[in-house]
Known about the structure:
By secondary structure, this protein is mainly alpha-helical. The protein has one domain: Bromodomain-like (Up-down Bundle). It is 70% helix and 0% strand. It has helices spanning 2-35, 42-64, 69-91, 123-147. It starts with a helix and ends with a helix.
Amino acid sequence: MHIQKSLKLIDRQGDYAIWVIAIAAMLGSLYFSEVRGLPPCTLCWYQRILIYPLVAIFAVAIYRKDRVAAYYAMPLVAIGLIISFYQSLLQWGVIKESLVNCTVNSAVSCSSAQVNWLGFITIPFMSFLAFLFIALLISLRVYLQKINK
């Protein structure tokens, strides 16, 4: 019974949740660069390029009650998920830095963790979580739309 209520809530309010997550990710990235003075690396710029449009896409989807915005957003989310996961692995030392040259367009190395809370929470990992939750919400909404037809 609780699962059905949760699924109905996600179906009705999923765009709002996605929009809030995207806004939080955007404001978080701006906080780290503009307030804390941490320059973004090249991969961080790519993640910003992918998350910022989601704020506008879902704002318009909410305003227009557009049920298909998820289809437009999912490619951005999928690419952002891959990049942020890759960079997290790079910063955790799972992938060797010698495999990627990330300081070509930025003075900051993509493998250096400028923020490291609890030994594993880095800026790319926070980005990964944002993209992951958005991907899960989009997937649930698309699934619910298909079974409710």
